[in-house]
Design goal:
The chain has about 240 residues and is of the alpha+beta class. The chain has a domain of about 35 residues. It has ten helices and eight strands. A four-stranded antiparallel β-sheet has the order 1-2-4-3. A hairpin with a 6-residue loop joins strand 1 and strand 2. Helix 1 packs antiparallel against helix 2, helix 7 crosses helix 8 and helix 8 crosses helix 9. The radius of gyration is 19 Å and the shape is globular. The chain starts with a helix and ends in a 7-residue tail after the last helix. About 5% of the residues have low confidence.
């Protein structure tokens, strides 16, 4: 039944239909489709930030991507037992669900779990040291509190700007066909938008785009737009449409 679930999933069958055909719960099928064993590479059991002296992140590319996702659709819940990191993903993009869960495991979590609700899949992982990796956590929405990265975080995203932007655009970004009418003729061209209410997070996005020499402009106070042909082509190299 597990194999049949993967075959149906690969054929593009919706999750709800897979559950109906197999007569199984969504939690069971989701676990089969999206869970995986911990990354084969050796990951230290201790937090790299808690070592003395602090050491570098084991997988900086995965961390840069996860940081972008956290700043967009992530939330760190400080429970009474073990902190819980959650990233909300659209069910229409199973590839993003895979990528987020892999990044969580590569950064230190033993396993990532999944919870479906209202058309989205929440990728969740408990780990004692999430607050060490995401010191920006705090009560309330991100746009109502300062979001400042530590020096070591800035070093990571400076060295992995493409992965950081991929995480940002996979969370609060979109790639779409922009249509304009000129002299009675309709033209269509691809365009990227990044929408976020936090001015601090918007500055971080713009900072990484500038670092990669990708042209952008503010379409609205909460919307960053990448529309030039060469700039869109550059983003397509490492972001592309959601999948």
């Amino acid at each position: 039944m597990r194999r049949e679930a993967h075959i149906l999933h690969a054929a593009g069958t919706p999750l709800k239909e897979i559950c109906r055909q197999l007569g199984l719960s969504r939690n069971t099928v989701s676990y089969w489709l999206y869970n995986r064993a911990r990354a084969a590479s050796k990951i230290a059991e201790r937090c790299p930030r808690c070592d003395r002296p602090p050491r570098l992140i084991d997988d900086p590319a995965s961390y840069a991507y996860l940081l972008g996702q956290y700043l967009g659709d992530g939330h760190l819940l400080m429970t009474q037992r073990v902190p819980l990191l959650t990233v909300a993903c659209d069910l229409r993009y199973p590839g993003l669900i895979h990528e987020v869960s892999y990044a969580m495991e590569a950064c230190g979590a033993r396993t990532a779990g999944f919870q479906e609700r209202a058309g989205c899949m929440s990728v969740r992982a408990h780990w004692t040291h999430w607050p060490c990796l995401f010191p920006q956590h705090g009560p309330g929405p991100k746009h109502r509190r300062p979001i400042k990265l530590s020096n070591w975080q800035l070093e990571v995203i400076d060295n992995r700007a493409e992965r950081f932007l991929r995480g940002l655009f996979h969370s609060d970004g979109s790639r779409f066909a922009n249509r304009v009418v000129r002299n009675g003729r309709t033209y269509s061209y691809p365009r990227y938008n990044f929408v976020n209410e936090s001015t601090d997070i918007m500055r971080l996005c713009a900072r990484s785009l500038d670092q990669l020499h990708i042209a952008w402009k503010m379409a609205r106070p909460n919307t960053l737009s990448v529309a030039r042909r060469e700039a869109v082509a550059r983003l397509d190299e490492f972001v592309g449409p959601k999948w």
